[in-house]
């Protein structure tokens, strides 16, 4: 199911990724967010390689029981593999998607899907 | 694709719903959020019946181009069909999902899926 990561401090929505039961269990047990990578078909410990782990403060479930909200403390200030604070860095402006957020870290240093 | 509605004022994540191209177009043209109802297989003007429309302040797209973030001004203070402010009203607490948010409005007055 879709899982939304929201920064506990800034309240910004960082990422939408996916979780299954195993990912949720690992997240709760370790206190660090684990997603289910659909493209790689495996558990994905967010930040395992980049160091940009997301510590979990709160886990919420929606009314239909099919979406998760994670309130997190992101480490390193970068959640997106493009080297930006968050994945939602494009804003709709006069029918164009425009890049609205700066690159904070060299994206070649942030591994794809991490 | 999944679409996250976030309250522009409180910054709370209200709802995860779904959009297609037509829903996004109607949202931009009208300035009020339209989702794609997967269960009913039709466009769904949020709040059309309940009055709890969501005015759009900002639309963002994620890095993979497959998730939308809507910054909205929700009308009436209720986004969930259960009569709560937001759909993410259950919080994980010692391996149990506990209801953490109060009902604001009689849920029989808030139509299902609206």
Provide an overview of this structure.
Two copies of one chain form a homodimer. With 114 residues, the first copy, chain A, is mostly beta strands. The first copy, chain A, is 9% helix and 38% strand. The first copy, chain A, contains one helix and eight strands. The first copy, chain A, has one helix at residues 21-30, and strands at residues 2-7, 13-18, 34-37, 42-45, 54-61, 68-74, 90-93, 96-99. In chain A, the strands form three sheets. A four-stranded mixed β-sheet of chain A has the order 2-1-6-5, with no helix packed on it. A two-stranded antiparallel sheet of chain A has the order 3-4. The interface between A and B is medium-sized, with 31 and 31 residues. Strand 5 of chain A pairs antiparallel with strand 7 of chain B, so a sheet runs across the interface.
Describe what is shown at a glance.
Two copies of one chain form a homodimer. The first copy, chain A, has 114 residues and is mainly beta.
Oligomer: homodimer
Helix content of chain A: under 10%
Q: Could you tell me the mean pLDDT of chain A?
A: 94
What is the rounded distance between the termini of chain A?
A: 19 Å
Question: How does the helix and strand content of chain A classify structurally?
Answer: mainly beta
Give the CA-based shape of chain A. globular
Largest pleated sheet of chain A: 4 strands, mixed
Radius of gyration of chain A: 14 Å
Order of helices and strands of chain A: EEHEEEEEE
The count of β-strands of chain A is 8
Per DSSP, what share of the residues of chain A sits in E-state strands of 2 or more residues?
35-45%
Q: Looking across the biggest beta sheet of chain A, what order are the strands in?
A: 2-1-6-5
Low-confidence spans of chain A: none
The count of helical stretches of chain A stands at 1
Query: Which pair of chains forms the biggest interface, and how many residues does each contribute?
Result: A-B, 31 and 31 residues
């Amino acid at each position: 199911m879709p899982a939304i990561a929201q920064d506990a401090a800034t309240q910004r929505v960082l990422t939408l990724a996916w979780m299954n039961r195993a990912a949720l269990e690992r997240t709760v047990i370790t206190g660090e967010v684990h997603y289910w990578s659909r493209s790689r078909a495996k558990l994905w410990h967010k930040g395992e390689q980049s160091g940009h782990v997301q510590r979990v403060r709160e886990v919420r479930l929606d009314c239909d029981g099919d979406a998760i909200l994670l309130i997190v403390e992101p480490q390193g200030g970068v959640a997106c593999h493009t080297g930006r604070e968050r994945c939602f860095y494009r804003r709709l402006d006069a029918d164009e998607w425009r890049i609205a957020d700066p690159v904070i870290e060299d994206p070649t240093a942030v591994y794809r899907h991490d």
